[in-house]
Amino acid sequence: MRTQLLGLTTAALAVGTLALGLATPAQADAWKTPTKVPFPNGAMTDIDVVSTGDGDAVAAAIIDGAVHAYTATDGVWSGHAVVRSDVDATKLVLASNGRGAAAVGWVENVGGVDRLRVSRQAGPASWTGLNLMTPSGTDVVGQPQLGVAGDGLVIAAATVDGQDIDNKLLVTEWPLGAGPGAPKTLSESDAWNPALDVNSKGEALIAYNYTGLINDVMTVSRRTPGQGWNLGDSTSNSGNIASAPDVAISENGKGQVIYSVVSNAYYRAETSPVLADGTALTGHLVSLDEDFASEPSVDIDDDGRALFAYVVTKDGTKSIRYATAADGAYPGDPATLTGTLPDAQRPIALTGAGGLRAIQHSGNGRVVTHYRTSQVQPFVPITSEQGYLPDTAADVDAGGNLVTIGLKPLEGAFARFFDAGGPSLALSQPGAATTMSTSIPLTWSVTDSLSGLQPGTDIYATTAAWNQAQHGAAAVVIDNAPGTSAAFPAVLGTSYCFQARATDTSGNATTTEKRCTTVPLDDTALSGKKWNRIAQAGAFNNTATVTKKKGRKLILSGVQARHLSLLLTKAKKGGKVKVFWNGHLVKKVSLKGTGQVTVPVLDLGSVQAGTLKVKVVSKNGRKVTVDGVVAAK
Q1: Same domain, 44 and 161
Q2: Does 82 lie in the same domain as 10?
Q3: 3-state secondary structure (DSSP) of residue 550
Q4: Does 161 lie in the same domain as 112?
């Protein structure tokens, strides 16, 4: 889960500039220039940031008790909104589904009790809702949690106290286009420090501490769309709970939880994988030596691979440790993050598309973001100058980009984007499985949200002739194609699979999925006796093979294909043919009608070798016209 930023030291914000004086690591050109988020001046007590799309983000802050929000589009901040005027707001929480939907929440006093209120973003500078998510007569205790599903469903979780209520854990759902539902109780009492994460499907996990009879235990509750929330499952932790948890859920429905426990008189980090049915596996100690582990954080990618981070204090020295876990597995041995600040605190673990992994933490007035874009690459730190408050925030988007935010007293909030995602590139043509031309049209679109584009788009292709068993190696067939379209000269009887590749000015590249098409083999390639070979305008390749005699045959040997089709031309007095593959009848076709048609005759499931034969079975005088063969891979 993206770690929420809590409880900033109050700072009077004034107009100013900031020279970060950053070190220059490898790939430093991917870091964009730090930008001041132009919040109004005032005492800022909370700030947070979430990604809402490729290069887009929302930042929110509490300033002089009011809730403010700014939107970034392609890395540029604009669209300021006062979401809620001064209500002495506290405990800011911000969430997004990464697909353009965002929600912000805060705690305000309503009727003498502290309640969670949430607003939903309606546009770049517009927020709507202002809905109360906790019931009257109860106070929010601790930090509330917020998540947004792919369909815009907002989920809020909070622990509340009140008369005859002791740390009750509630969850409230607010569907898009409707009002919030009634709060649901996940724990009647003794539940605290909830952590929430939601995936695009609306599956969600809440992990929370529960006060047990002997030891405090970690409990996980799962939401399944259409079935609601289960009552929770204990992680069977190895010791008394010693910290708030963090939780993350993948697109595959499985999750991970990390927390600290007291084990043999030491505070150690422990994790629990969560199965897709909500079962929390037995806790597993990550840190085994004598240390003090605190402030755990976890994030998980779409495939279930998790990144854990936590602070370790040992012999009076602090460091950040991290570990990784495969899908549904316990993590391997932890490692110490090189370049940890001396007073390391508040780590944020982040995973993104394309292999991006990041861990951000603060200490001694600085903020350092460690990142890598592949598993074989070591983490590279990039460190700010002095003067930052300890609390920072960061998030990743679906394109694999990173946004961070921090606060400098008297200067303001500063955000920075890391461009680790390639351009948005889509190959739209070839669009048909068969291309009836020797010039194949290629069309694509390409943009980049955070960087410019390097000139030209490379077009790759693999080819396989009608008598070849498989495609050859991919090769560049159009180098640095300008614009967004091109034409490729094709060879008759050949299958092609095209891919486009574009690179941005930060060096990030995107390669599209393959789009395949086959150019038919001309009818002249089929052998047969006493057929008429004619030139015919409008026919494929302007040729056709014609007969009106029963028993005439056309044969094509040495075919290697997965799919076979015939190009035929129908006539008012059209005849009939039988199609054979390796001597077996596979299709009967009537040519009565009008116009040229492509008739599928065989789907082999895999590439197979054989001989194709077409035999005329209609009586003499009925016209049969064969125009070509599609032998596709």
Answers
A1: yes
A2: yes
A3: coil
A4: yes
